[in-house]
Specification:
It is built from seven helices and two strands; from the N terminus they run H-H-H-H-E-E-H-H-H. The protein is mainly alpha-helical. It has one domain. Strand 1 and strand 2 form a beta hairpin. Helix 4 runs antiparallel to helix 6. It starts with 23 loop residues before the first helix and ends in a 10-residue tail after the last helix.
Length: 178
């Protein structure tokens, strides 16, 4: 079977192509997704009645989990990809060949660097932390999104009624709204 390769590119006998490698575009796409999720959550905050009138303390108290999880997961995400990118080049060599179309860079892999990557203790530890943080991150995102779907966050009358009740009964909490 003939290996797939771009037209016009000739590889030497030692070159091995792979479909799985750390590319800057993979990191950029995931980074972009994190930015989009952050912006969507911020837009959900903006649309609540409490945010519009400046009662941010109530929002902060109720959505503390998401306010902590967003930056923590982003830091874990950046550390994970940094460790992955730094660990992998130890097993890779690059070789540049000149062909009729210009300079082509060919990636020559030593011996399945992806399997060797899992032998490094730092990468395994960071990967486990990243996967666990991702599980917590997405569960908090989903639960917060469902909580934002409640009507009480958008109605003025419910918060005015809550404020009036809290004046007469200081022990009333946010959960009693609507």
């Amino acid at each position: 079977m003939v290996p797939l390769r771009p037209a016009g590119v000739r590889y030497g006998a030692a070159a091995v192509t792979t479909f799985f490698h750390v590319s800057p575009s993979t990191c950029r796409v995931q980074f972009l997704i994190q930015i989009i999720v952050f912006l969507l959550i911020f837009m959900m905050f903006l649309s609540t009645y409490l945010f519009q009138v400046g009662l941010l303390e109530n929002l902060q108290r109720e959505f503390r989990a998401i306010l902590i999880t967003l930056p923590v997961y982003f830091i874990v995400f950046v550390v994970y990809f940094a460790v992955k990118v730094v660990s992998l080049p130890a097993y890779n060599k690059t070789h540049t060949k000149q062909d009729s179309f210009g300079c082509v860079q060919v990636l020559i892999l030593d011996d399945k660097p992806w399997s060797r990557l899992w032998e490094e203790g730092l990468f395994v530890a960071v990967s486990l932390v990243h996967k666990t943080a991702a599980l917590a991150y997405w569960s908090v995102i989903i639960s917060s999104t469902l909580k934002f779907g409640e009507l009480r966050w958008y109605l003025r009358s419910a918060w005015v009624r809550h404020y009036q009740q809290s004046q007469s009964d200081p022990g009333a909490g946010i959960a009693n709204v609507v």
